[in-house]
Amino acid sequence: MEPPGTEPFSVGHEGEILRLGNLFNKVNDDGFFDAVPVQPKLLAAAVHVIGGSDFRLFSLNTRGSPPGLGEQALHTDHGPNPGALETPPRYSGINSVLMLSPFTEQNGSTRMVSGWHRTGDTQEALADPSAPHPDEQRMLGPAGTVVVFSVHLLHSGTRNDSEHTRSCIHTSFMRRDRPQQVNQREAAAPQTIARLLRTAKGRATMAVMGMQDEDDPCLRDDYVINDRPDSEAPRL
Ligand SMILES: O=C(O)CCC(=O)C(=O)O
Known about the structure:
The chain is an alpha+beta fold. The protein has five helices and eight strands; from the N terminus they run βααβββββββααα. α4 packs across α5. The longest helix is centred in the first third of the chain and has 11 residues. It is globular. It binds 2-oxoglutaric acid.
């Protein structure tokens, strides 16, 4: 196994599409992304959809569609979900899009099939997942917009017909009994853990990311907790 924090970016299977996985560990030396997993509105949406707080970060990735690219087949982000047909229905998680560019009709905005998450089906139920769907709608908004949707919703990127790259960040939370896309406990670099342990908010981030799932992180050999004198410790 590679040392913590050195897993490569997943650059996807989409040709020139820029897709960076494992953002938290790869471009987070300054802690820029530390607050993303604990955004209150995102967590509230996850609690609402999943029906409780027993979930953790599934993935934190970017996707950038350059001009002429970005088209995908319709898909869900999770397998078939018979729980959707129960009363009350059960769902596995949420995904979200933070628009770093405006999402317009022309620039490869995500298409979504409203209500699909209630069917329990995946794209396997479609004759042609690449074809337009009669019920698809575009996810449109100015840069800075966040859209939250079920991991069982049918959706896909579309071709970017503008002259500029369309970029976004996807943050996904999934029920805790499902594996994470990246095992954050294994992937976290010692310096990341040390930074997070210094503040209450950082500890909350660790909990939401599942870094404390198997045992107390303070027990892991390479967790650096006492790396500065007490006099420098933050006052909470
Ligand atoms: O970039 C988009 O608009 C959607 C991306 C997506 O659904 C995916 O990569 O699974």
